[in-house]
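Hi V.,

You were right to ask for the full record rather than a summary. Here it is.
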Amino acid sequence: MSNTDTVVEHLDVAIIGAGISGLGAARYLSVEHPDRTFAILEGRAASGGTWDLFRYPGIRSDSDLHTFGYEFAPWRDRQSIADADRILDYLRSTACDAGVDTAVRYHHRVMAAHWSSADARWTLDIERTDTGERTRLTANWVFGATGYYRYDEGFTPEFAGREDFQGTIVHPQHWPEDLDYAGKRVIVIGSGATAVTLVPAMARTAAHVIMLQRTPTYIMPVPREDVIAIALRRFLGEERGYALTRRKNIAQQRGIWLFCQRFPKLARRIIRSVNAKRLPEGFPVDEHFNPPYNPWDQRLCAVPDGDLFKAIRNGSASVVTDRIATFTAAGVRLESGRELEADIIVTATGLNLQILGGMSLTVDGEPVTLSDTVVHRGTMFSGVPNLAIAIGYTNSSWTLKVGLLCEYFCKLLRHMDETGVDTAWAEADPGMETRPLLDFGAGYVQRSLDRLPKQGTAAPWLMSKGYQEDCRLLRDGEVADRHLHFAASAALKQRELV
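Predicted structure:
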């Protein structure tokens, strides 16, 4: 592998990641700041992020596409809970229509970023994943659109006896294209969004699929097609119908979340009642569909048209709630002593979280430990200049938050232009109370909290969970606050003198 210290190019903004956040950020930049130079640096060979990476059976959204889609690009498909291939087509066609698809540089993995206050710019160390070549470029700003999980590996617990199993073990994040499960006995370990997607999809052709869960999850059937959205588009046209559907669904998402927070016992009873009506008569609902936590303490799983319940009703799938004692040659043995046989075991056991794709940061030669920082307005790390990130909602559609963060980022750049500065950074008050970045009970989140940045307990350091609150803070509020600082670098002052 060759190395070079030569800086080959300078950009105004380097966007890292060509998924839904990065492509969206590029479109906002191209419209709001058409004279700024930018590129999207993507470590993989294709755009689309999650929707290109994951290839497991049945992969789909778990949010409606009228809110998961971009505000500026109407979702025109009949499916509201949409399959991955439709989402990928939407992302790529939207990027093409916006003219930002040509800004993507594939096989460009950012390994490290080094900030110089004197020059007010980042130097990015880049590895070409196709050739191994190392290059560098500089940028005034870095916009991290990498999401919050590792693309190269998922999470799999240590299972005793794993090496004894004579069948095939698969993690959904690395699904083999040639895996044939027709007529096979399958165990899917897990109960989250991935598991409830896989089970009914595989059950269509597998001999039988068991969803083996340690703890139940709240699961609700939702219509795959939104008939109100279809009617609104028919009568009002694509753009107005989409806008009204989007407002409807934002309010609906918020209303459901607030109801679950304020009336958890009633919400639990309603969810149980809906589940019981969809399951076979006499099914042990409380054993398999009654979580020990309140609704929305973890993300509520949606199943389009109740497909999981249909698979259980027709006998092609079943649920087992127990703990794994060990893998065996023929399957798994549970702590209860029961043995489950399988030809294929799918470990739908979650993700590994990672901020900024694992790249390292230094500011004026000092390494940055992200877990020591606090996130300002959901987008900037305290003490780290000219770097923004995009992390979406955990209790609503991801893209709702990302769109607002992109708008705010563009406003911030304009404010800096107008005030004649080139450096912006946030500073938290000494001794400010902090809390974990993601206030979410999912196991994959809890495992990683000690490595993530923190949030505060009040704005602008609080990671808001509400779209309307964020509209007031990010879209309608002032760009600057007392925690956000600005400066003109020595390089800028020198240019002004010339």
